[in-house]
Specification:
homodimer; alpha/beta; Urease, subunit C, domain 1; TIM Barrel; 2 domains; seven-stranded mixed β-sheet; 18 helices; disordered N terminus
């Protein structure tokens, strides 16, 4: 897929021949690059200009002089790493955080989620939930996320204002939803949405048919054609639960991935969320079609969906990232816990404590995520020429003391609350735990108002 | 087992007939009691005198007057709940946090843990690691822990100084260890240790034969007899890995739990860590003998030990608590993540999203833990007459907004960093995130010194 974010100019890449004045210099801490050679600079620096990284490396006494900077961030006692990439969520559902748990899927959906959505989801609701989710993600060091929900145009506006990067999929589905009452209306909305954000440096607008069991073949084809027309990503839930496999086998006589392959849906523009129930043959299809996979270990555990064969997919070279799923199911947007859970879950299920190492888990949350959403040329690692999406993690806490191995720490010990600074596209969104682009207290107050409204609406419905 | 902590005086229980002046009054927040009826007071209070809770209930405008207090803690926007109980750890191993990961058990033990212990573990090392672990536990709201390590007498001293409650098991094993070079020396040390702490209000000294595959039958019997002589708990690793089952079947022609039953080891004084590989018959034995189980879901996942049949044990009425295991394997002492993992893991493995509900997970970390360590008459819930071990959790964070269900929040969304205050035996150990009984910066600096020493020692050994 051709990158839909604005291309790097050659002048930006040829930093050597330009002035070395930069906008931002981060120095004094360890730098985990996640580049091809997995460079790790114990006393590193990152220089940023015009939203991009212009240099990364081991710092010297001359670094500050070599890159005169408008802003300098002292990273002593911290580690600098690529911002985390959440490959699957439904951001406005933060307003349904913990609305119901420990239920079977049918009860959860029909008694809580569907009525709560039908009665409450408006453009204003989506704006409030997006702001809340953005606050949580910036605090936890997530710099890019992939979304599937309604009113994605409003989500795009809020995300851009907050300065976060996102692939935003307007959900299209074969029944009336809060923003569009018919398939035709949804397709018009989605086309306008994709056109509007074309070329934006932060927002990639996408087409998101909900799932193969809620969107008929003809509509899946229409959604694919729309995505092709605008060279947009195509985001969908894929092979999440055993019931989905049963549905595909009953209605299409093949399993989910094979069905999408058969109808020509799969391509390097597809980002599939979950991808739990796949066999070796289907893994080979995902690899061949360069489909991205958004692995959501905590959601899959909590909803008892099953265990995705991640070690096998990684071995086969499938593009695998990590995702949180929505806060109504998981119940937060915490990528650190997904890394930790992914590493541990696959060891248990494989009966092999060597699979999904800490470095592989961190890779899934950074470069793997970038590959899964087909933005690996722009984000996912700290390299000259790439977008300046990076975070600082404070290593001073008792639970991070002492340290033997940085990768191990990042996956098995660091918490979201250890992230001190979050930077996207060169813009500082959080500085020393203070959010700079979101009025957090107002956002939380609004979320509490909505909680009261939602709870009332469910009671009125007989809940 | 008779409680080894000092008994409540009848005067303390008859609070109604005494003056209502108290040492500490906590008011303004929700109070989750975890008592028999699971009372949850939306605007509750807890009054504390002489290290014990004298009253808990719904607050009224007259509460402050009714319980004139030396210290008042305003819990507005917070929730008050019983302190968490970590039923299995090796606290000094915080100094080995992340020393090696993603290895098979044999490599991990023989290449890292055993040489690192042989070359570095002294009384001073244990003191430093204990202080570090205590800092982490107080910060995360753990008020009681069960330990197995060496130099437990030093661990007891540090734990008492820091004001934390603990069941401390001096590890005895059939090979030379850092504090005792022979079995006989270890038994003398352990007897003195148990005698010294008898009747202490915070410390319960215990006998801890390492495991059935490292302690021969004769020595297991001696350890049991020593525990019986002093009415002390008997702590051991039990049925952790498939290799242990193989060992027992090969050497004793029965499975681990059945073997311990056969030799008369099992009783209400036993706390078994892990207890992964048990069948229905063995679960019935554990129930009949009132053995406590320290379930360590994250350790079991990371080391690929297997999945403990927790839903079956809970159904059978076995005493089940949660534990973190040591920081060398897991790699932190975070009980919130154990609750979250327990709830999710058992849903996945049972293929049933309704098992191990949030309330059951919280129960395992509080009252269940108290039952597992046979201290349920003293701790585990907020009830008049019980020890005042309680924590405050700040609900204001973005990742905790909004809130529909308190139990769900506590298990699926709250993080260790949300704990604002930790109180043990009526003493405030952390107030608004500031540790009051531990000089944390000094402790962390010392831990970093040990890390350098340990790393050097492994290199010298050819690592």
């Amino acid at each position: 897929m051709v990158l839909t974010v604005a291309a790097t100019t050659s002048a930006q890449r040829r930093t050597g021949s330009q002035s070395n004045a930069v906008d931002l210099l981060i120095t004094g801490g360890a730098v985990v690059t996640m580049d091809g050679e997995r460079h790790l600079y114990e006393n590193g620096f990152v220089a940023v200009r015009g939203g991009r990284i212009v240099a990364v490396g081991e710092a010297s006494p001359r670094t500050a002089q070599a890159y005169p900077a408008k802003q300098v961030i002292d990273a002593r006692g911290k580690v600098v790493l690529p911002g985390l990439i959440n490959t699957h969520t439904h951001i406005p559902m933060t307003l349904f955080r913990g609305i119901s748990d420990d239920l079977n899927l049918q009860d959860w959906l029909t008694k809580y989620i569907f009525p709560a959505e039908a009665k409450n989801v408006t453009r204003e609701f989506v704006v409030a939930g997006t702001r809340l989710g953005l606050a949580e993600m910036i605090r936890g060091g997530t710099t890019t996320y992939v979304d599937m929900y309604y009113f994605e145009d409003a989500i795009a506006e809020e995300t851009k204002k907050a300065g976060v990067r996102a692939v935003l999929g307007e959900t299209v589905i074969d029944f009336p939803v809060p923003d569009n009452k018919t398939w035709e209306a949804a397709m018009v909305y989605t086309e306008n949405f994709v056109k509007r954000w074309k070329g934006d440096p932060l927002i990639v607008a996408a087409v998101a048919p909900h799932a193969l069991y809620t969107v008929k073949t003809e509509h899946l084809n229409e959604a694919r054609a729309l995505a092709e027309k605008y060279d947009a990503p195509l985001v969908t839930h894929l092979a999440e639960a055993p019931t989905e496999t049963e549905y595909a086998e009953k209605n299409y006589q093949v399993r989910p991935v094979a069905y999408l392959e058969k109808i020509g849906f799969l391509s390097p523009r597809v980002i599939g969320a979950h991808v739990v129930h796949v066999n070796d043959e289907e893994i080979a299809i995902l690899k061949r079609r360069e489909v991205g996979v958004g692995h959501c270990p905590q959601s899959n555990m909590k909803l008892a969906s099953g265990t995705s064969p991640i070690p096998q997919m990684l071995k086969a070279g499938v593009r695998v990232g990590l995702g949180t799923d929505g806060a109504a199911s998981n119940n937060d947007l915490n990528m650190w816990e997904e890394m930790d859970s992914a590493a541990k879950l696959h060891k248990l299920v494989s009966k092999d404590p060597t699979v999904v190492s800490a470095r592989e888990a961190l890779e899934m949350a950074t470069m793997g995520g970038a590959r899964a959403i087909h933005l690996e040329r722009e984000i996912g690692s700290l390299e000259a020429g790439k977008r300046a999406d990076l975070i600082l993690v404070d290593l001073n806490a008792a639970h991070l003391t002492p340290m033997y191995n940085l990768y191990s720490h990042l996956v098995y010990a660091v918490k979201a609350s250890d992230v001190s600074d979050t930077i996207v596209n060169g813009r500082v969104l959080m500085r020393q735990r203070r959010l700079l682009t979101i009025d957090e207290e107002t956002v939380k107050a609004k979320a509490r108002e909505y909680q009261r409204q939602v709870s009332r609406s469910l009671k009125e419905g007989g809940q």
